[in-house]
């Protein structure tokens, strides 16, 4: 498995151009990332730091003296005709990642290397039905992405997975994405290409130590697609071999529509790339003290954090899975950290706030409300300043940009009415307006008090303390 991670740095790997996603084509370029004559690269220190953090989190050895190389090949979206990468001296080597499979077993995936490099530009093929070059009338080139920092993480051959290889592949990329996100080195948006997976698959006769010819399925961009692509490629190669054919070493493209792969180009070997040391960049020799400081600053592993949170909140595996699938886990945890009870924080994020996100076609994280603000609203309900109905109006106000929860309460006049005098007056008016109901209550039909309480709540625009109103109604009719 080869996973390319776009690092979340503000600028590119070797120049000061910004890296923001979605900018107008070719507006984030300069002579360095366009490979113009005489332009000299300078290494991005933050990218090196991120690469070291990734290596440490994967239990790798950090290379004390590494260097960049030129990987020579021509593609229209590679403006220099070579890619500045690392070849024989990567930043991190010999690590591993333990991943959890569906049946609860753990599979260790050995990591061969993690190396730094730069991304290519992007080709947009116009006029075809598939968005690929075949059938297109012309192509457009956007070099904004050229030079964006990448770390490529390459596993060793994953032996012995057999029929479970697709599951192992998905579990590995899932765990790796979680780890990278927890490190804060990338937004790991597979839909935007921040995390891209290449799956190398080969079959071998049972019991044979010799690997068969491999294919490389490029740029698979979802966790589900990783599993589907590996499974399809296993079956495709098996069909070729069983029919007496030979598997061709090539790159292949995953087809999202039907879950198949299509042939790309014949796969080059390392010799074809004519690697040689990059003459314009000094070797990378991180200070050991810096490396150890970064090691000490590594965050809690995401699966260990989830286990701790689950035990602390007392939620089931299914509830925990639902929180993760909804993208609510970190938001709920931050709300709890801000002082809210876990059950109430979960309730708000997975119920009303999820409804608001869906209606706006946003993710929960994109909602214009912070965990601290949700915690404050929960606190206002707890101390009796708001009831749940009013609290939802406060959420609406925060989402509408009306300020902090307390500002919305004051601006909209939403505080619960709990003054005995004001409530008694509202109760007296409701009883006078509904004499038949009042008589039923006096006759012992205490459930009828609900109608009077409802009338008072309507009169106070839902701002009365319902429990206090009920108490006053029953007292007045006793």
From TrEMBL:
Enzyme class: ligase
Superkingdom of the organism of origin: Bacteria
A Pfam family per the record: GatB_Yqey
Presence of keyword Mitochondrion: no
Catalytic activity field: L-glutamyl-tRNA(Gln) + L-glutamine + ATP + H2O = L-glutaminyl-tRNA(Gln) + L-glutamate + ADP + phosphate + H(+); L-aspartyl-tRNA(Asn) + L-glutamine + ATP + H2O = L-asparaginyl-tRNA(Asn) + L-glutamate + ADP + phosphate + 2 H(+)
Gene3D superfamilies for this protein: 1.10.10.410
Domain Asn/Gln amidotransferase: residue ranges: 330-477
Keywords assigned by UniProt, alphabetized: ATP-binding, Ligase, Nucleotide-binding, Protein biosynthesis
EC number: 6.3.5.-
Family assignment from sequence similarity: Belongs to the GatB/GatE family. GatB subfamily.
The protein's role, per its UniProt record: Allows the formation of correctly charged Asn-tRNA(Asn) or Gln-tRNA(Gln) through the transamidation of misacylated Asp-tRNA(Asn) or Glu-tRNA(Gln) in organisms which lack either or both of asparaginyl-tRNA or glutaminyl-tRNA synthetases. The reaction takes place in the presence of glutamine and ATP through an activated phospho-Asp-tRNA(Asn) or phospho-Glu-tRNA(Gln).
Assembly and interaction partners: Heterotrimer of A, B and C subunits.
NCBIfam families with a match to the protein in the record: gatB, PRK05477.1-2, PRK05477.1-3, PRK05477.1-4
Family matches, as HAMAP family: GatB
Record protein name field: Aspartyl/glutamyl-tRNA(Asn/Gln) amidotransferase subunit B
Provenance organism: Rhodococcus antarcticus
